[in-house]
Amino acid sequence: MTAPARILLADDHALVRHGVRLILDNEPDLTVVAEADDGAEAVAQARSTDIDLAILDIAMPRQTGLQAARELSRLRPELHILILTMYDNEQYFFEALKAGASGYVLKSVADRDLVAACRAAIRDEPFIYPGAETTLIRKYLDRAQQGDALPAKPITEREEEILKLVAEGHTSKEIGDILFISAKTVERHRANLLQKLGLRDRLELTRYAIRVGLIEP
């Protein structure tokens, strides 16, 4: 018999992890061997644990699932990645694919779709939650016919990291320590964020971070 696929499960809600783990461990070909409650811990676990698949929630502290997926794709290109999310959002779907994920699963239907998504990922096949296929493909084809580009992200990856940490309440010095850059560099990035996004202060940055799913309300 083939050994079951070894899975890392990352979500900052213990109850969600417990529920998802029950679904996966009930399958003979899947087993959860590691858990993490934020994106940074997920990356650390993936460095030290023998896993085949990482399932990452989008909105987690320290690092989002998308940020963790980008890092894991660079560190372990052979690792399969799924994004688990409450956000039925076209932008996140394309960002997940660009970050290296092979599938995007909604928490609201995880009991129905997650096992199939895991098996597809292990086979190196993409997984799109069924309700999104028609809409996403139609929008993509419409853009292609009109000569439009795919939706662009307004900020860089580094700015996204800083935005998330600002919204979580960290000071410039703390953010600098976390990202190994100077507080002055953090301040420059924050000023750029305010200008790019047309926002005025930390409160508006926090509201924006919630709206785009970098942190939860």
Automatic annotation (TrEMBL):
Protein name, UniProt field: DNA-binding response regulator, NarL/FixJ family, contains REC and HTH domains
Record GO terms (molecular function): DNA binding
Annotated keywords: DNA-binding, Phosphoprotein, Transcription, Transcription regulation
GO terms for biological process, alphabetical: phosphorelay signal transduction system; regulation of DNA-templated transcription
PANTHER family named in the record: TRANSCRIPTIONAL REGULATORY PROTEIN NARL-RELATED, TWO-COMPONENT RESPONSE REGULATOR
Gene3D superfamilies xref list: 3.40.50.2300
PROSITE patterns given in the database record: HTH_LUXR_1, HTH_LUXR_2, RESPONSE_REGULATORY
Organism: Streptomyces wuyuanensis
